[in-house]
Amino acid sequence: MLTARENAISWDECFMRMAHVISERSKDPSTQVGAVIADIQNVVLGLGYNGFPRGIESDQLPWEREGTFADTKYAYVCHAEENAIYNANQKVHGSKIYCTLFPCNECAKTLIQNGITEVIYENDKYHDVDTFVAARRLLDAAGIKYRQYLSDSSK
Asked: Please, which pLDDT band fits residue 153 given cuts at 50, 70 and 90?
């Protein structure tokens, strides 16, 4: 009698791989971020990547990282976490989100307002930047769990 395969990837590995794949849709020349929302039964509810709002072509607005606010991408880009919620096929209350990059304070507020209960992130390269310090404060105050994902191959 056959037995079940023992080396299947974990749900964490599966959803983080998906987040990386969807991040490849981003037209941002410097940073590609992906996010996947899954419910408690591990059903995907939404996917998102960082980019301009729908209907705005990738060459219509600046991708610069420095300059006045209105001349940088920061004034125009929707983040992956936001887009995953906008693209969700149902309410995301009580679900978890997988992000290739730790969410900023604006995304933390969006996650809180939409009832996300856990954030699983991979990269934390901006840990000490004010917007990410504020994000942790927000998530802590709202009682949202967050943890860094380490791939199965890096354990």
From this structure: low
